[in-house]
Design a protein that fits this description.
There is one protein chain. The radius of gyration is 24 Å and the shape is rod-shaped. The mean pLDDT is 91. The chain has two domains: 37 residues; 36 residues. The N and C termini lie far apart (54 Å). 82% of the residues lie in helices and 0% in strands. The protein is mostly helical. It is built from three helices and no strands. One of its GO terms (cellular component) is plasma membrane. It holds the Pfam family UPF0154.
């Protein structure tokens, strides 16, 4: 009977560890994305406007394509 109790304890501990790990990883990612949001087209437009340029839609799309290409590597 002792062996079954230990097996159940190990299974419960593993399930608890997985649940806790998932929760902590989710909290970390939510905090990271809040502090460092992914760049979007609106951010590119604002950045170019701050540099004194009036970006065309083509320029914004090219810049987004370059950023996506760079992040895929």
């Amino acid at each position: 009977m002792d062996t079954w109790i230990w097996i159940i304890i190990v299974i419960i501990a593993l399930a608890g560890g997985v649940a806790l790990g998932f929760y902590l990883a989710r909290q970390y990612m939510m905090k990271y994305l809040k502090e460092n949001p992914p760049i979007n087209e609106q951010m590119i437009r604002v950045m170019m406007a701050q540099m004194g340029r009036k970006p065309s839609e083509k320029q914004v799309r090219q810049m987004m394509a370059q950023m996506n290409k760079f992040s895929d590597k």
